[in-house]
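Q&A log
Question type: sequence-to-structure
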Amino acid sequence: KGNAYFALNECEKAIELYNVSLKYKESILTEIKINPRFLEASNEQLTAYYKASLASIYFTLSECKTNLGYFDEALADINTALELTSDIKNLDLNKETYYNLRGYIYAMNGKYEQAISDFNKSIQINKNFTLAYVNRAIAKVSLVEKVKCSSYSIRGNFNNQPMSVNWILPTKSSLKKSESNILSALSDCNTAIEIDDKFGFSYYIRGQIKQMLMHGDYCMDLLTAREFGLIVEAE
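Response status: OK
Response body:
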């Protein structure tokens, strides 16, 4: 039921239900044990499935709280999820999404070095995870120039546009000092587009980076992003 509310972007209601689920978390292990699917599973496997189930709840709790701007609570939940999955093997947990979410939370709190570290881990797990490349690009630029985020969302339009980013354009002197960082961010966006040339968020961020670097074709990227359904700010 919590997942249903989350899909409807009613995060406060989803959080209430996830907390009820955790209140009765011991029953999850009981349910796994009587499930015919796990009839021949060892105790080690049963424990792994149990921890993975709990981690999934904490992960989605973290998504909800991030969406609502409760970043400290969201960070605690995603750390719990990562701790629960630390010793689980032979299960596809999509842990790249866990590290990407924590990196996103760090970025929203202005902790860009820690964010980059988590995006690196996400990419190490799944080198084709486009969102982590774009998020890493944002963090790299943000190390140099302050980011003003006019909105953020984890669900709803999250897959298309996780957040709207407006950077203060650097002066020529500051651009010279930070050019290597910005070029590295541009490379991340290029990689994301090579992996998935229909992921509009990559074009949205690349267009703004190109604008910083005074590349004449930056408008093409912003127009492409808009064609893919992103909201591109008037300025």
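Response note: Confidence is low (pLDDT under 50) at residues 154-159.
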